[in-house]
Design brief:
four-stranded parallel sheet, DNA-binding, six-stranded parallel sheet, homodimer, elongated, alpha/beta, 14 strands
DNA sequence: TGAGCCAATGTCGACGTCGTCAATTGAAAT
DNA sequence: ATTTCAATTGACGACGTCGACATTGGCTCA
């Protein structure tokens, strides 16, 4: 591999001068700069970041730890947000996945420390509370799509499930819906409760009687291996004598099943029944006909802003107490009326 | 940061001896080993990989370059496969995304070279032919979910779209289907042609007259911003006077729209119409009721085996001419009969 | 007893980069 | 002409690790 000394020899200057040119330090003649740049181009020299980091004890690498990278489609958008930030700010991204295994997680931390990375984004693939082994974490860390347990102090950034669900429910109330069905997410998901609570709060604030709400559990069991009652429950709700005029689903995948149930019963969306989802998981929400009214999770921004928060932290400017919450916007499409 | 010398001082030995213990070299007394390990634990010493890599000019880092990480859900499984391999083999993964932008791609290569990584997995998020700027690539590189242009010599690993589609079609023929509809993927996708060709080949081999096949284009236009005719075409095909008994869709997302069209027309799956997809994109294939018969893309194995091929290459054992093709298995579920 | 050998440990320097400080040069100021 | 100063460049060492080689001391065997 070609090193700074090779460049120096070819350019006829000292290695330090090459270093100055590479790092754009002042007080180098235009002449010298050109000579050096020529040599650099000739040899295809690229600075060795490992060597650089030994001297400077900053690596400009940030690490991402994910738990269940593949169970939530499109949560990859979080990673993409981080990468875009990193690319724009001269950082590189180390990626590691734990599959939720504590031993693997410990390994990941060790590897990250061995690489002397500047900071860590701990990305939960479904919205939840995270407890980091207290001793482990000596690297600045930001929790993404999650927040810390009580007593732990890591900055965090997460979606406003409550607000999104509240707004979505208000959207339905404004359209005059009064009898509403609701199919819940797996209660293990933090979003499940926040979404349901917001639904109930908005309904109550809108003066809807609790007896006009039909609430069913759509899924339960361990993440990734849950049992799924959605289709059955949707059929059931839609067959009620005083059938709701709107059906709210815990997420878009559930909404898909609600569509199937409605169509199976000969009901038209949205003429006979309004169906809404959550997540704006586009492979589903845009494939459904009519397209699905839902709430967009700000995955990309979670990653991008999370990276920025981490950077503040690394530079000693951030606050360990920051809890950032990102708005989830209602996306109105054809499935609601 | 605590270094090997700190450990040496505390343990009362030389730094080299600590190095020996850390790297499990022979000819160290049990006594010494214990002393050193104690000091290591006390100080929380973790070897600095950057320093190590300077000496050894091997980093044990592999890079992943992705293009459109988020447009294909679950293609993240490729990355997961790579990570699992890396975790099991003591490697770390650097991740970079180009969004299909050539300038960003050039940057990524430069960054990877600056990190002196051992090799690169170039991961296409949809199956396609890839042309790497010839001059750029001086790092061992394996193409994943893609294969090189004629004349380029990089090993590659990709799914057997043709075989999967052929088997799927045979599955239908075996069940007695003779009038079959087909909705094509965006022709820009490599898989689109392979899947269609296999469909036609299998149909012909099965003695089906071409006039009994109804083939429609489901999508066209630039990836990520295509126009979608699937629902309309499905409605149309299913309304034909001599309606097919089976409808083959380019992928699962299209199959979803075919379901909706079928249900809209009052048809039952699979009693009135058999529908099959491709990809086994589980958020859709398992959410559909009945669940979808489809073909599984071996994303995870693409990543895992790709990493292994890269490792061979890095060690000088691999062949630059290797073109590995992974079988795509038919997954029979309730949507076909 | 002493030559020979091996196990155990240490010393030193190099990897590539850059911070520190010194050396050199030329021009401005006296 | 001499001093002063700033701009430019270079020599050197340190970062953390480990390979090459040296040293030490005890043991074996004739």
């Amino acid at each position: 591999m070609v090193s700074i000394k090779d460049v120096a020899r070819v350019a006829g200057v000292s290695d330090k001068t090459v270093s100055r040119v590479v790092n754009r330090e002042p007080n180098v003649t235009r002449d010298t700069i050109e000579k050096v740049q020529l040599a650099i181009a000739d040899l295809g020299y690229i600075p060795n970041l490992a060597a650089r980091s030994i001297r400077s004890s900053r690596t400009n690498i940030i690490g991402i730890i994910t738990d269940f990278i593949s169970t939530t489609p499109y949560s990859g958008d979080i990673v993409r947000g981080v990468q875009d930030w990193a690319g724009a700010n001269g950082r590189t991204v180390l990626l590691a996945n734990t599959d939720g295994d504590l031993e693997r997680e410990a390994n990941v931390w060790r590897t990250f420390k061995a690489h002397r990375i500047d900071g860590v984004l701990y990305v939960a693939m479904y919205h939840r509370v995270v407890a980091l082994a207290a001793g482990e974490v000596s690297i600045p860390t930001v929790l993404v799509n999650s927040h810390p347990e009580d007593g732990q102090d890591h900055p965090s950034i997460e979606p406003d499930d409550f607000g999104g669900s509240y707004d979505l429910t208000r959207h339905l109330l404004e359209r005059g819906h009064r009898r509403i069905g609701y199919i819940r997410l797996n209660p293990l998901l933090l979003g499940a409760n926040q979404r349901l609570d917001a639904f109930l709060a908005a309904a109550q604030a809108g003066g809807v009687a609790e007896t006009d709400l039909t609430i069913r559990l759509g899924m339960e069991g361990p993440i990734g291996r849950e049992t799924n009652y959605v289709y059955r429950e949707a059929l059931d709700i839609l067959s009620l004598p005083d059938r709701p005029t709107a059906l709210v689903c815990g997420n878009d995948e559930m909404a898909l099943q609600a569509y199937l149930a409605a169509l199976h019963l000969g009901l038209r969306v949205p003429d006979d029944i309004t169906i809404v989802g959550f997540d704006d998981f586009r492979t589903v929400s845009l494939a459904l006909k009519p397209e699905l009214t839902t709430v967009a999770l700000p995955y990309y921004d979670l990653g991008r802003q999370g990276a920025d928060m981490l950077d503040q932290l690394v530079q000693g400017k951030g606050s360990y107490a920051e809890r950032r919450v990102l708005k989830c916007a209602v996306v109105v499409r054809g499935s609601s009326r």
